[in-house]
Amino acid sequence: MYPCRLVGVVALRSLASKLSSLEKAGRMPLAPALSVSPPPAPPPTLPSSLPSSLPSGAPRASLLDDLRARMQATLERSARKLPAPPPAVDTCELPFVTFETPSGSLHVRMQRLSGAHRTGHAPIACARDASPALLALLALDPALAPCDPSRALYLDTETTGLSGGAGTVAFLVGLAWWDGPTLVLEQILVRALGEEAPMLERVRDRIEAASMLVTFNGKSFDMPLLRTRFVMARVTAPAEPPHLDLLHVARRVHKERTRRSVGACKLTALERDILGFERIDDVASGDVSACYLHFLRTGDARALLGVIEHNAWDVVAMAALVGLYGEPLPVQSRLAAEDLAGLARTLRRAGALDQALAAAEAALDRASHGAGGATHAPLRARAEIAKARGDRAQALADFEALAAAVDDPSVRLELAKIYEHWARAPSAALAWAAKGTGETPALAEKRARRLARKAERADVSAGQATLNLRASRPPPRTTPRGS
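Above: the chain's sequence. Below: its structure in token form.
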């Protein structure tokens, strides 16, 4: 269709040119000028009413006028009409104050939150008084133990992509720190991609003044990205303090939840399930970069308002989680039984067996009172801790109670090991192994053969001991006393 329309326009232009040449040569009477304006878009085809042959008796001048009128009408119909201007939209100002620095413009938003501020039911004031020793144990990082949580820096970034790399830019950085009893929340926006250096310098200054860094997945994403941006912008990178990544702590403490739901350790899920706060009209993490790119293309500031609130929620939620995880163990009243069991397992892994046992006992007590669900996870945690402490009787009792409550091959494997190596009862160990231990067939067969040999030797030894006992007895007296 398109080539036919183009050929029609070319034919019209050629015919108009020939008519003009004839008039200039004086061979035809002059007629009104034909204005031909080339259309910017492909024009439609000529109307079907255009005569294919000239009528023989029509006057030449009137015929030419009619042709010119028809061609002009066709060209006018094919001319592209200018699009209507877009409707006016409401504009808004972003909640940032601009400061001029030697490196460029710095756009900052600052809020001060009282220690009574809560994320759900969790007050953020507890983060200031959190136990650094407990946080170090949960993070499995001894470098955090001497840090001062009241001088911690909370950091979260919003970026142009989630894959990292040299082309990904942190366009919004949220920071928070304690100023006495007040949590100061600072957000730094890169309004244009050329304004990155002032933001990086401010972030560097904040990091260098902190005793510890707190992020959520910052070890894998935020900090590697910022290190790359420091290099790309030729800004000196800061010396980083010890780093507490709350995502790693959450995966250990809430392990039972992750078994039921893959996304249980997302920050928004922790806010909802642990802190009791659910966001309304939040911007999904996958849509953040699209909002910023829309802002760069159109200048529409409304696209960033949701992203700014999303970032602020992330930073404040981290402070609430630090207060929750860093509470002293006797006060751990806001964690469910299964979460206390995860905390106990983490403490056992860190080597703090006394604290781990206290957490496991608290988890069992809470589960027995119906404040945290089933007792399976707390009971297993206490059994594992008792085994690590060398309390064989407690470990055996807990694993046997657990085996009676759940069908778990790993529990039967633990019982087989305890009976074989601690109780020296290979027959009982063989009975538990025969019920299935979850091992590969080769390993299960190897264990069964070994236990069968031990049980046979134990039976022989027991029989020989019986014979020896009988042989060592004095023969019965045949002579009556006194004879």
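Residues 27-37, 44-54 have pLDDT under 50 and may be disordered.
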